[in-house]
C-alpha cells in the first residue's frame, strides 16, 4: 500500500515508455527510503542505492552491488533507470561539447559541456522545446513538446559526466526550456542534484535561469530551493520587453523586479544574476545602459552581458565590440557588478539561445 502511494506521488516521473514504473534517477533519498520500507529491507540500503545511482552512475538495476535480493527484485519489478542515448556529439574548437540526447520515448534535448580551468559547467535542458516564445531564441521556434522529468534531467548530467575526463562542477539550467514552467520536476531535480549524499553539487554551483515567471520566483523563495537564481531580463522598458519576450505581457518589468528584490530579501541577501542579451539596435543603446543601471541600483544583482549569438533565419544581429564595451562602461561607472560573458561553442551552435531538438 505504501508503495502504491509512492507510485501516485511520483506518477509524473514515469516516462511514456514506462507508464507503471518509477524512474530511480528521479527519486529523492526520502523516496528511496520509502522504497526500502516497501521492500521490507533496512533503511541503510537507501544510502547504498543513493550512492550507486547518483554518485557512481549505475544504470543497470541488476548490477547494483550491496543491496539485498529482496530490494533488487522489488526495484526490477517497480522501477527503471532512465538512460538516454547520445544521438549526436559535437565538439567546438574551444573544447565545448554539445550532446543531443534521445530519451526513452524518442524525444530529444541538447545539453552542453563547457570546460574552463580544468572544470566543467553543464548546461541542462528542462523541457523538450519551450513555450515562452522569446524572439531571439532558436529553441522557441520549435514550441513546447513536453516537460522533462527530474529523472531525465539527472540522466542528462550522468551522461555528461560519463563522457567527460573532468568532473562536472557547475550546473546551469539554461538549456532548452523554461525551468519555472516545469517547476515541480525542476525543484525535485535541484534537490537531488544538491543532496550531499547523492550527486553532491554545491547549491552555489547550481543556477536556475528564468525568463520571469513571477509566481514561481516566489515559490523558489518559499521553498528555499538550494540553487542560485538568474533572470533573463534583456530589456529596460516594457515596450521593448513585450516585443522580444512575450512573458513580459503577463509579468511586466516592475512586477518582475519587485519579485527579484523580494527573493533577495527572503534568501538572506543572496545575489541574483541578471542576464542581458545585447541585440544590436534593439536594447543596446546608451540610454538602455543607463536605464539598466537605474533598475539595478541597490538591488544586489550581478549583471551578465551576452552579445547575441545569431543563428540562420534570426532577425537580430550581434552588436559591435565597441557598443558592448560602451554599454559595459556605463554600468561599471555606476558601480554595478557587471561582466561581459564570452560565448562558448558558437561554431557548433551550442551558445546561449542556439539549442534545438
Ligand atoms: S530564451 Fe529560454 S525561456 Fe526564452 S524561449 Fe528560449 S529557452 Fe525558452
Features:
two-stranded parallel ribbon, alpha/beta, 2 domains, ten-stranded mixed sheet, binds iron/sulfur cluster, 357 residues, DNA polymerase, domain 1, 14 strands, 12 helices, TIM Barrel
What do these coordinates show?
The chain is an alpha/beta fold. It has 2 domains: 2-80, DNA polymerase, domain 1; 85-348, Alpha-Beta Barrel (TIM Barrel), CATH 3.20.20.70. The chain has 12 helices and 14 strands. It has helices at 2-9, 29-39, 44-55, 69-78, 150-162, 183-194, 214-223, 238-244, 247-250, 253-266, 286-296, 321-333, and strands spanning 22-23, 79-80, 85-91, 97-102, 108-116, 119-123, 127-129, 144-147, 168-173, 206-210, 228-232, 272-278, 301-307, 337-340. The strands form 3 sheets. It has a 10-stranded mixed beta sheet, covered by helices on one side. A two-stranded parallel ribbon has the order 1-2. A two-stranded antiparallel ribbon has the order 7-8. Strand 9, helix 6 (183-194) and strand 10 form a beta-alpha-beta unit. Helix 2 (29-39) crosses helix 4 (69-78) and helix 7 packs parallel to helix 10. The longest helix has 14 residues, at 253-266. The radius of gyration is 21 Å and the shape is globular. The two termini are 40 Å apart. Mean pLDDT is 90; it is low at 1-14. Bound molecules: iron/sulfur cluster.
